[in-house]
Amino acid sequence: MSSILNNTSATNALKTLRQINGNLAKAQDQISTGLKINSSKDGAAFWSIATTMRSDIKALDTVNSLLGIGAAKVDTAQVGTDDAIDTTQKIRDLLVSAKEGSADKTLIQTQITQLQANLVNTAKASSYNGVNMLYKGATGAGAGVQNITSSVSRDASGNLATTSISVDSANTLLIDGATVANGILSKDRTGGNSNNYSVAGGSNNISLTATTTDSQLSDMIEAVEGALKDMTKSSSMLGSVSNRIDSSGEFAKKLQANLQSGVSRLVDTDMEEASAKLSALQTQQQLAVQALSIANSNNQNILSLFR
């Protein structure tokens, strides 16, 4: 039955065309954006997971930046410590040479004084962004414990947590102007002959005179050896921390890459599949338009009945 009030064929063809046009618009949007899940309406569950993963990727970016800052602090302290070791070894060699009977101890002390000044300057200069793990003045706070954010993790409840690498400057401080006993170079060390000496920056620094005895020299050398031992230990610790920071940075980058890959699998458009789907929908659209045209022409056929 044909009706001039209701063209069922045209209505069905229009409905089909609208559906095809909707799918075609969605396919074109996926191709243009490269995303099959671009908002929560495209798939709430996958969109939520992808959003959380993207947040974690950004957090790992921050971690990498913080690791870079932490590495710079530690590396600065290690460079300063290694330089101080070299300078202290020169002081030890001068003290050994002073034991030679004809040595001019006053002249040797002139050289030692310069080296001691270099040690203080090295400790003061070993600062990064205002953080100095080798030197503390007579007033003001020292570097204290440096917590370097090394990673982020998310538990089953979705809570984000961070882990840190801690470095206590109490183990690396070379000179403490407030409490000299806390500095590797500034602390007094008692030798086997009961003489107390500090290497530099302390209240009883090594100082030679023409009357300095061999027993005093022995205790000075012993004090220097003690400082060298402690600085070597400090440098080794800083090196270990530096390696740990590097490892944490590499792991963060690998984790970030895995998360990015996971997000891609969840939300990215399969371009080969989308291309094939687009071609099919374009063909369906053409057929639907033709079907609607045919359905609309039925009204002209009704007119022919009344000729």
What does this structure look like?
The chain is mainly α and 307 residues long. The protein has two domains: 11-34 and 269-294; 38-268, f41 fragment of flagellin, N-terminal domain (Up-down Bundle). The chain is 62% helix and 10% strand. The chain has six helices and eight strands. The chain has a two-stranded antiparallel sheet with strand order 1-2. Strands 3-6 form a two-stranded parallel ribbon. A hairpin with a 5-residue loop joins strand 4 and strand 5. Helix 1 runs antiparallel to helix 5 (271-296), helix 2 packs antiparallel against helix 3 (105-125) and helix 2 runs antiparallel to helix 4 (214-267). The radius of gyration is 39 Å and the shape is rod-shaped. The chain starts with 7 loop residues before the first helix and ends with a helix. The model has no long low-confidence stretch (mean pLDDT 87).
CATH superfamily of the largest domain: f41 fragment of flagellin, N-terminal domain
| β-strand number | 8
Q: Give me the strand/helix succession.
A: HHHEEEEEEEEHHH
**Derived structural class:** mainly alpha
Strand content range = 5-15%
Q: What is the overall number of helices?
A: 6
Just give the CATH class of the largest domain.
Answer: Mainly Alpha
Percent of residues in helices comes to 55-70%
The CATH topology annotation of the largest domain reads as f41 fragment of flagellin, N-terminal domain
Radius of gyration (CA) equals 39 Å
List segments where confidence is low: pLDDT < 50 over at least 5 consecutive residues. none
Q: In what order do the strands lie side by side in the largest sheet? A: 1-2
Largest sheet: 2 strands, antiparallel
What is the annotated CATH architecture of the largest domain?
Answer: Up-down Bundle
